[in-house]
């Protein structure tokens, strides 16, 4: 992969940059996170106000104007294209039976707030008790299963708001 970058400024403007374009900037660090930049013989005062290296989000002040900049490279574009965005988690809104079995216990009620990994219910399958835990924090919207009932694989058990 080359050193090609996509810059999104204030969620409004998009720019392409590569190592060659960056090397033509005449930038001098004047103090920590502050720079004097010459671009096409025009001077700019730049300061990195905030930096989130993991999310690749930056707040930059240029000549006293603040800009929010998101930087992405070719790998980020490929990951997004494949549906695996960095730092994004899939929102699970429904719990379905992972296998056929019998509901032994339901540990939650409609409207109850739950935390990630709280026990939701116990499903008996093949003479084994399987504790089904919450995949995320949330509020229980509905419970489709009842204690003592048999369920099929893929059957809806619990929905989150």
UniProtKB/TrEMBL annotation:
Residues 83-161 form the Lipoyl-binding domain. The keyword Cytoplasm does not apply. PROSITE patterns: BIOTIN, BIOTINYL_LIPOYL. Coiled coil: none annotated. Pfam families: Biotin_lipoyl. It comes from the Bacteria. InterPro entries: Biotin_BS, Biotin_Carboxyl_Carrier/Decarb, Biotin_lipoyl, Single_hybrid_motif. CDD domains: biotinyl_domain. Keywords: Biotin. This is Biotin carboxyl carrier protein. It comes from Flavobacterium haoranii.
């Amino acid at each position: 992969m080359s050193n090609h970058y996509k810059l999104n400024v204030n969620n409004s403007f998009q720019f392409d940059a590569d190592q060659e374009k960056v090397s033509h900037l005449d930038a001098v660090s004047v103090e920590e996170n502050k720079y004097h930049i010459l671009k096409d013989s025009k001077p700019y005062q730049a300061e990195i106000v905030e930096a989130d290296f993991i999310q690749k989000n930056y707040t930059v002040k240029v000549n006293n104007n603040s800009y929010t900049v998101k930087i992405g490279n070719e790998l980020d574009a490929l990951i997004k294209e494949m549906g695996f965005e960095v730092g994004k988690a899939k929102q699970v809104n429904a719990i379905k039976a992972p296998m056929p079995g019998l509901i032994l216990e339901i540990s939650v009620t409609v409207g109850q707030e739950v935390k990630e990994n709280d026990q939701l219910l116990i499903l008996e399958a093949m003479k084994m008790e399987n504790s089904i835990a919450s995949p995320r924090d949330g509020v229980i919207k509905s419970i489709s299963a009842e204690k003592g009932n048999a369920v099929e694989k893929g059957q809806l058990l619990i929905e989150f708001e």
